[in-house]
Amino acid sequence: MIATGRSPRGEQEHEERIRCIRTLLKHPLVTAGHDTFRQLRRNATWLRTWFAEQFAWGLMVESEYVRLAKYPARQLDGSRPAYDLKKQTPFTRRRYVMLCLALAVLERSERQTILGKLALEMTRLAQGDPVLEQAGMAFDLERRDQRVDLVAVVRLLIAWGVLVRVHGNEEAYVQSSEDVLYTIQRPVLAHLLTVQRGPSAVDATEFEDRLHGMQAESAPESDEGRRRRLRVTLMRMLVDNPIVYYHDLQEDELAYLNSQRSRLVGELERYTGLLAEIRAEGIAMVDPAQELTDHPLPEEGTRGHATLLLAEYLAQALRDNPAVSFPVSLLAQQLERFALTHGQRWRKAVREPGGLQLLLDEVLHIFSALQLVRLDEDGMLTPLPAIGRYRLQEVKTPGAADNPGEGDAA
């Protein structure tokens, strides 16, 4: 038997810490009902030190919740939106506004509330707000589409542990036939926002300036401080980004990565279960279990099939011309051609007016979130090297004709 360097107890402790780290990377806010909550509390001291050393992220461990204070490598990174938990589509602008209004109302509410009262108070809070009016954000929760938006916000708050459903069903509320009762978890609500300083302490008025004021992290202006900042930035990018492209790094970041790559990658592989895939264009930390990704590919269903078909199309275009770039409208035309062949097996909504455009929007969001393409403001799309990981392969059986099948994802 080959020695592992750890006793069975030490190996068990190491595996438990990996589970804790993976849990917090996927769910930065964990409440007491989670199946790893006791493990998180048992390993609190070690976890607090590890996250602080590797990412400069704080970890708060209380009797009711565990909160990892994650900060992004890039302050203006908008690639991780909130999602509709039912449809797995990104939040719209209206839903973000509703989320902020809901949190403001819940902060001043009693221990329990009902969905109808929450909606009423949110409407009152929004009425007469000049900023919302100027942005065209008028709220009328008598409308079914806006009740659907509110329900998506509430379900996200339930998933975060801010609300606990006591009685009722949100779907019934959408149909205006039933209300829903919730208990508000105040300790979770109080620590939902993760910032270096509160919004009220920031004097700036422009969005980017206010964001910087809330998130700006201090670091010593010394050689050691600069090295520390480079390490933390790269570790955050490696663990959070689907792929770290070398061309997206600043000169000093690339130099540090080239000199410290083995140490950075080795630390992540040892404690997260991720595996490094190092290519000429960059580094991806791949999760074999596909648990630490917002968009596992391949996935089942219409969207998954369309995503793989378009990924193969883009991968081939990139192989044919490494500098290829084209209007998104051309991709829409290609999706229409795929629909002629596969549309009868796709969900019915795709065949309705506007259905293909909605499907394309979903696919493009996945491509962008996984950094498989770059979308410019002028409507141009550029396939990125990682798109080559997702392609359909021929499936052959002994004695069968050489006809392409549905394929597997490479």
Helix and strand layout, with pairings?
Blueprint: H1 8-26, E1 29-31, H2 37-42, H3 44-55, E2 58-61, E3 65-69, H4 93-107, E4 112-114, H5 115-126, H6 130-134, H7 144-160, E5 163-167, H8 170-174, E6 181-184, H9 186-190, H10 207-215, H11 223-240, E7 244-245, H12 251-272, E8 275-278, E9 282-286, H13 301-320, E10 326-327, H14 328-342, H15 355-369, E11 373-375, E12 380-383
Antiparallel strand pairs: 1-3, 2-3, 4-6, 5-6, 7-9, 8-9, 10-12, 11-12
Helix pairs in contact: 4-5, 4-7, 11-12, 13-15
User: Which segments are poorly predicted (pLDDT under 50) over 5 or more consecutive residues?
Assistant: 394-410
Indicate the proportion of strand residues: 5-15%
- Main beta-sheet strand count, sense and barrel state: 3 strands, antiparallel
CATH architectural category of the largest domain: Orthogonal Bundle
Q: What shape does the CA trace take? A: globular
Structural class: mainly alpha
Oligomer: single chain
User: In order across it, which strands form the biggest sheet?
Assistant: 1-3-2
Under CATH at level 1, the class of the largest domain stands as Mainly Alpha
Q: Mean pLDDT score, rounded? A: 88
Distance between the termini: 35 Å
Number of strands: 12
What is the percent of helical residues? 40-55%
- The CATH topology name of the largest domain reads Arc Repressor Mutant, subunit A
Number of helices: 15
